[in-house]
Structures are given as C-alpha cells and as structure tokens.
Amino acid sequence: KNEQDSDKATAPTGGLFARLKSGLSKTSNTLTAGLVGRKKIDDELLEDLETQLLMADVGVDATDRIIRQLTARVKRNELADGDALYHALAELMTDSLSRSDVPLIIPESDDPFVILVVGINGAGKTTSIGKLAKHLQTAGYSVMLAAGDTFRAAAVEQLQTWGERNHVPVISQGSGADSASVIFDALQSAKARNIDVLIADTAGRLHTQDHLMSELQKVKRVMGKLDANAPHETLLVVDGGTGQNALKQAEAFHASMNLTGLAVTKLDGTAKARYARRMITLKHLGKSYAGGHDALLDINLHIGRGELTFLTGHSGAGKSSLLRMLALIDRPTRGSMKVNGHEISRLPNSAIPAYRRSLGIIFQDHRLLSDRTIFDNIALPLQISGQPQELIQRRVRASLDKVGLLSKENEFPAALSSGQQQRIGIARAIINKPAILLADEPTGNLDPDLSREIMNLFVQFNQVGVTVLIASHDHHLIESFDHRIIELSNGQIVGEH
User: Fold this and answer.
1) Do the Cβ atoms of 152 and 480 come closer than 8 Å?
2) Which NCBIfam families does the entry link to (predicted)?
3) Which residue in 90, 37, 35, 30 sits closest to 56, CA to CA?
C-alpha cells in the first residue's frame, strides 16, 4: 500500500468507545438514582442496588460480582456514603468495559482484510456496517461492502444506500442469490481492485436455527478458497436492549463462527427504551372462552415507547386476540396488561372511551361508512368528542395529506380502491395523534406493491415516535423490514427476532 498511509495500521476507536460509554451512562443514571445523597450504606441499600442491577438485566453473575466487591469495600470502610458507592459502582462497570476495549488492528497486507458481520434481524447490522465503513474511510482505508444478506428483501438496497452515502463500492447479486457466492465475488473484486478492507453482510438468521448457521459456515469455507485466513474478523452485532439474550446469541454464533468481536447497538436509543420506558407490558396474560378454548396462554411481552413490532403466526395463533385485548374490545381472563405504566385490564367501562383516544386502530376490512364522504369518515372520532370545526378540518386534511389522499376528501368509499380505503382507515386512526397504533392484518387483501406502501406508512409514523404493533401473516413482507418480530402459535409466544 502507499507509504504515506503506513500510519493507518490501527483504526482509531476512542470516539466509538467513548460513545459506547456515553450510552451506558444513561442506563447508569437509572440504576443509581437512589444512591446519590444517601448518608448511610447499609444492607438495605446494597439489596436495593442488587435488585436494580438485576432488573436492568446486568445478569446474575455480573451482579453478584459487583455486589461482592462493593460489600468488601464497605466493610473496609473505603466507602462512606451513597455518593462514594455511586462512584465505586461506576468504576467497576467502566473497568469491566475497558478490559474489552481492544482496537481493531488492520495489518499491512497485499490482500484485503475481511470483516464478516453476523447477527439476527433487527440488531442493527446494516447500520453498523455503514458506520464502520465510514469510520475506516476516515482512518485512511479503502473499503468495499458485500451484500451477503440476500434473504431479507430490503437488505441489499439498504446496504447500497450506505455505499452511495459513503462513496463505497457494493458488490451484490440481488435478493435470493446465494450468500456465499456474493461474498466470494466480492472478495475476488476486492483483490483485483487492491481494496484494503472488505466488510461482508450476512442474513439476519436466528441463532436457534442450526441449518442457517450452516449457511454461515459455508460462507466461511468459500472465502477460504481465496484466502485461507479469511475472515480475519468475525463481528457479532447485538441489540443493546436484548439483555441476557445477547449472551445466548454470542454463545451460539461463537460455537459456529469463532467470533472475534462484538458490536453493541442502540444503547442510547429507542431499543434501550424497551426496558427503561416501556409503553406496553403484558405479564402472564391469558384469555379463555366458553368451552375451554384458550386464545392466549401466559403471554409475557414488553414493547418500548417508540418501537415498531410485528406479530406473526398461523391463522388462529392469537394475533387478533392480543390486539383486541390491548384495544379493550375484549378483556383478558387473567394476567396483567399495562399501557404507559397504567393497568388497563380492569379499567372501568366508563373510562374505556378516553383510553381508546390514545390509540389508533386499523382493521383489515377498513370499516368505513359507505354513506359518508372520506372527510366525514375521518372526522368522525373528533366530531364524537365535540372538537371545534376548525380543528377538525385542519386535522382531517393533515391526516389525508400524510397518507397521500388529500384530493379524495369529497369522494365516497366505494369510489376508492382497496389500497386507498386502507389508507383512509389509517388516516382515521391517526386523527387523534395517538401514542400507539394497533393494526390487524392491514395488508391482508392487498397485492405485494400496495402492501409494501402501507407498511412504509407505518414505518414513517414510527419514525416520529409512535409505538406501532402490527399483526400480519405475511412473513416475506415483514422479514424485509428491520424490526422486531414476535411469533405466536396456539396462543403462546414461540419465537422472537
């Protein structure tokens, strides 16, 4: 490589690691809120801290180690009060991180340095690859990307967007191509073009699926035909909000791929809010009907403020039943159901209308009134609540504009296509500016192109902070979006990725 670039053997990591610590500091504020200002350190305070650490999903072993070390320092009279305990806790947690702060070293070589990126859907692989590419460019390296996630429909396009943004070449073969073949071609191209670093994306395969792990091993074998040492780094990307499940992911991926690095994402974003700021919390939720039929069985689920989540499963799996519970169209037989911190399962009937004004509900069959104009259909919730006409007109037109149908306000539902009617249903659902959108099979009767348009609308609402929960049986469609997927079967949660 160029002699003037000889000082680039170590990619600077201080900025990235500083942001990691910054993200964790926000969690630390939650953990230690009860420490600062406490004059006395006693057993009760240490027990409270232990509980907070466990609730934050620090883990049993790590929590036990931290508490034992802090207790030993208290007994040696090294810590006088809550403030001292706070700083000692910060030191222990920072020290644990610092031991993992190993720089990414890219040695001088005539061959490309290959980084293989693995992880489940929704962890943030594509975004991490884009940021890593930019980081390495800034350090003086030439970079190429390999679009090896050929399973998720939008993955190739997303990586190409990152490539265009950073002026980095992207090697791809389109959706459905053989991942190993794509990465093999990319490595050949990187060698021919004298590229410093090749970063290869892979499918967001679940760590519990052995046959998909075998696909990853195939990628590694195929790369070995061109470079016996490739990949030189195998990086696992995990969502910082998944807690202890991240350890299970790491163990499974390491057993198959011999991991060399870990990227923890979303520590300071909405994913962490799934734990610190829960919008929906279901605990041991169940619903039984007459005759002994169980529609829902022991549902435990947390959905964060501003999170978009898909519910999927076979017909009768419990998707619609779960949405009906949250909308209080039906009531659970047992368990707890909290929305925005409030228990709603026992909400009195008189309070249900006020609660539903915080929701937007979208049905598969639209449920539009055929004898009313589009404007009147959307305005109905505001008219029922007695809102002034000026506000109604402003909000209705704003809602229509958001779904791209402002010109249809004087039409009747029968004059609209099925896709347009579904958009009207969405416009009606957002008229009250709800904090939560619940959608039951919103694309069930639409063709693939219209289905994607409708789903993109939900993504747009989610991007401005709305919590979105969508029930859909269209696996191919929802897998193409980089969001959390909860799978139901026979009334139970059987999977998540």
Assistant:
1) yes
2) FtsE, ftsY
3) 30
Where in the chain is CATH 1.20.120.140? 32-98
Give all strands of the β-sheet with 170-171 in edge-to-edge order: 170-171, 143-146, 197-200, 113-118, 233-239, 261-265
pTM (predicted TM-score): 0.48
Complete edge-to-edge strand list for the sheet that includes strand 436-440 = 359-362, 436-440, 467-471, 308-313, 484-489, 492-496
Fold category of 277-496 in CATH: Rossmann fold (3.40.50)
pLDDT of 16: 45
Rounded to the nearest 5 degrees, what angle is found at the Cα of 168, between the Cα atoms of 164 and 170?
85
Residue pLDDT, tens place only, 205-250: 655 555 678 888 899 999 999 999 999 999 999 887 666 667 778 8
The Cα–Cα gap between 384 and 158 comes to 43
CATH architecture classification, 113-270: 3-Layer(aba) Sandwich (3.40)
User: Average pLDDT, stretch 477-497?
Assistant: 89
Categorise residue 356: left if φ over 0, alpha if ψ from -120 to 50, beta otherwise. Answer: alpha
Encoding tokens for residue 283? 């605990």
* Per-residue model confidence as pLDDT tens digits over 356-410: 888 999 987 778 999 999 999 999 988 888 889 988 998 899 899 888 899 999 9
Query: Which regions of the chain carry the CATH code 3.40.50.300?
Result: 113-270, 277-496
Distance of CA 80 to the CA centre of its chain: 41
**Cβ-contact 459, 428 below 8 angstroms:** no
Q: Which residue has the tokens 């506000």?
A: 391
Average pLDDT of the segment spanning 160-186? 89
How do strand 492-496 and strand 484-489 relate by DSSP bridges? antiparallel
CATH, range 32-98: 1.20.120.140
